[in-house]
TrEMBL record:
Record protein name field: DUF349 domain-containing protein
Pfam family, one: DUF349
Superkingdom to which the source organism belongs: Bacteria
């Protein structure tokens, strides 16, 4: 009977390959003999190099990593991997190296957990102090920052985890109950103020119908004084009510002037007139495709001028402001489009208008779709990293949405013009 073929780490028996017992692990079957026992042993000796390579790779990753504690699970998994690995070699130094990593990482994690415990306790105290502040809106922003720090802080020892989480959540829940009550009360006050202002508007309309116009004009002027005392409404609501109030007053005094035979010409604020003129000029120049670079420079200069003038106007016309912003956005997008196209079509303005439009449509469509895709990726990443509540992130998203919207508006205009030319 032939003796089984063996080496320092294993042997062959009955057509199978076995690894010798080592440490506390018994001998076990790791494979089959295919051609010869010598080849089988050589194969599994060579295969052991894979285990050595994986341990070395993991050690190098731990050495290079900043967040070393996250590798503990990988070390434990690697230990299981080695114990069950089908190969022949000296596993003892490899397991010893992993045990060394395990001890080091557990000590590091414990130290980090102690540090995290201190941080989270401090964050709970910060949250408690912030929740007591009177300015609920400002306190909400501060609490969101604290919550972001809490999420970014690593885990603590399991014996403290549930208690800390519950304590922190209790502070947040109590604050947001207080916040809800605050806004419910604020909304109630706003509703009351809206009713008061709406009452003033209705009163002016009723006074316009009164027979004693002299008595009515005194009352209207009293209402105008009382209107100024009602403050604290949301800007959009305040603006809407003011427009209705102004309209009611204008109608009243039109009747008053007509009865009294007064030829009244409403005074136009020269600053508003200048802003309106600037807006109209840019709207006309947008059509001048050849000189779009100069128009973009003018729009930049007008933006500075607009900011300076509008800051001096107490009740700025929001529709005019939006109109100005829209035309500036269109000019900048048009300028960018033509600059990109010029790299391939330097003589664009010399081409027939139909060909110009086709080139502009293709390029603008490509840019709009590209920016949409980039925005969707950015929003998904921000959602995943819980950055959607960050003001800078929201501002970036809103700015990009507006740019895409302007591109789509211009694109629609190009397509409509092309359809008209093709069908004329």
């Amino acid at each position: 009977m032939n003796q089984p073929t063996s080496n320092e780490f294993g042997f062959c028996r009955d057509g199978k390959v076995f690894i010798n017992a080592y440490l506390s692990f018994p001998e076990r079957e790791i494979g089959f003999v295919r051609n010869s026992e010598e080849e089988a042993l050589a194969y599994f000796v060579k295969r052991f190099d894979l285990a050595v390579s994986k341990v070395k790779g993991l050690s190098a990753e731990i050495e290079a990593a900043q967040n070393k504690g996250s590798f503990l699970t990988k070390v434990l998994q690697m230990q299981t991997y080695l114990i069950e690995f089908d190969g022949l070699g000296d596993f003892k130094p490899l397991l010893a190296e992993l045990e060394k990593h395990e001890a080091y990482l557990k000590e590091l994690i414990q130290a980090n957990q102690v540090k995290n415990l201190e941080i989270k306790r401090a964050l709970i105290q910060d949250a408690k102090e912030i929740s007591e502040e009177e300015d609920v809106v400002e306190a909400t922003d501060k609490l969101m920052e604290v919550k972001m720090k809490w999420v970014k802080t690593g885990p603590v020892d399991k014996q403290f985890q549930d208690q800390l989480t519950a304590e922190f959540q209790e502070v947040l829940d109590a604050f947001f109950l207080k916040r809800r009550a605050y806004f419910e009360d604020k909304n109630r006050q706003i509703d009351e103020k809206i009713l008061i202002l709406q009452g003033y508007i209705d009163n002016v309309h009723q006074l316009r119908k009164a027979e004693d116009i002299d008595d009515s004009v005194v009352k209207v002027k009293e209402i105008q004084k009382e209107w100024k005392n009602v403050i604290g409404l949301p800007p959009k609501k305040q603006s809407m009510l003011w427009k209705n109030f102004k309209k009611a007053n204008d109608m009243f005094f039109e009747k008053y002037n007509r009865i009294k035979g007064i030829d009244y010409k409403p005074r136009i604020d020269p600053r508003v007139l200048e802003l309106t003129t600037m807006t109209g000029e840019l709207e006309l120049k947008l059509r001048d495709q050849v000189n779009i670079v100069a128009t973009a420079d003018l729009a930049k200069a007008y933006l500075v001028k607009w900011k300076e003038i509008s800051s001096q106007i107490k009740n700025m016309d929001r529709s005019l402001a939006e109109r100005f912003r829209t035309i500036c956005d269109k000019i900048f997008e048009m300028n960018y489009l033509l600059r990109v196209i010029s790299y391939r079509h330097a003589n664009l303005n010399e081409k027939p208008r139909i060909e110009q439009l086709k080139i502009m449509i293709n390029q603008m469509d490509y840019m709009a779709k590209k920016e949409k895709g980039e925005l969707e990726s950015f929003m998904a990443e921000s959602e995943a990293t819980r950055m959607m509540e960050d003001k800078i992130t929201l501002s970036k998203i809103n700015t990009q949405k507006r740019k895409i919207s302007m591109k789509e508006i211009l694109l629609t205009g190009f397509k409509e013009e092309l359809d008209q030319l093709l069908n004329s």
